User: Fold this.
Amino acid sequence: MPIKSLRIPTAAGQADAFAAFPDHGERHPGVLMYADGFGIRPVLREMARELAGHGYYVLVPNSFYRHGPAPLVELPEYIGEGVRPAVFAQLMPLIEAHTAERVLRDADAYLRFLTTQPEVGAGPVAVTGYCIGGLYAMRTAAAHPDQVAAVAAFHGPVGVDGADLFSRLTAQVHLGHAEGDVTPETLGELNQALDAAGVGYTSEVYPGTIHGFTMSDTDAFSAPGLQRHWDRLLSLLDRALSNT
Assistant:
């Protein structure tokens, strides 16, 4: 799958991004993918290519472009326990500065860009995200119910915005939780809130996983967890976007 470097016009400037898509001269359903807190790096390109290989145009923006192009901090090839605290010390100010208002303003620009690409077919799109990107994905879907038909979030803090966000969701939802991130009680409360809002969703704990389990360049990685993630994500996209 080819990778294309892009610049997305936003209200705050130009967001650097990349897209992966099948290079067959056809149009494909669009997917907006939000990276985890570590941002754009080789593993995200690999994941975007994998998803594109199933027939999707995958757009991955640098969420923290206001601070410069990716990579914003120097990341080791493997993010283990020994380097994680120092890396997060550099990243946390960027994450904290990326307010809900900024997320939504940028989402407008990302979806406008995605849906006007010549390789993207007409119709609804999907949004997926990892870690903090899972929260960005949920906020994007809630703010654009007429455009987003599916949203998936993996090991993300999706309950932060609570019932107000859930009440605005019309997309089909999949939430893949790390076993180390949720208790049975918090999972039950989250699912009850989704039920009360009338959301069509699946929400499950991935066995034997800890936060960040989808990312193969970290010590949190779980190969079975990543495969389950692909199974659930591809099934969701097939159901929601099969007619686009």
